[in-house]
Design a protein that fits this description.
The protein has one domain. The chain is an all-alpha fold. Helices cover 86% and strands 0% of the residues. It contains three helices and no strands. The model has no long low-confidence stretch (mean pLDDT 92).
Length: 83
């Protein structure tokens, strides 16, 4: 819990993962709606299949920044231990 209040652990990566699940569910629901209510089968299938993939690629860009931060923090900790 101390890591949380000292801002040593990032909250954003967890929120990004939750956002991916919520966004994927929303995209699937929109795709089903397009197939049923609008009769746009092609667009509905595209949204259901490619939407979560595009969302994942977009959100992975943010995760990379946090991974870089964690790696640099680990390197800093190892450098301090060697001194």
């Amino acid at each position: 819990m101390n890591d949380f209040f000292a801002f040593r652990r990032m909250l954003a990566p967890w929120l990004i993962r939750v956002g991916f699940v919520a966004g994927s569910i929303a995209l699937i629901v929109v795709g089903i709606y397009d197939i049923i209510a609008v009769p746009a089968i092609g667009m509905g299938l595209f949204i259901m299949l490619c939407g979560p993939l595009i969302l994942r690629l977009f959100l992975e860009m943010f995760i990379v920044f946090f991974t870089i931060n964690e790696t640099l923090t680990d390197i800093r900790s190892q450098m301090k231990q060697k001194e």
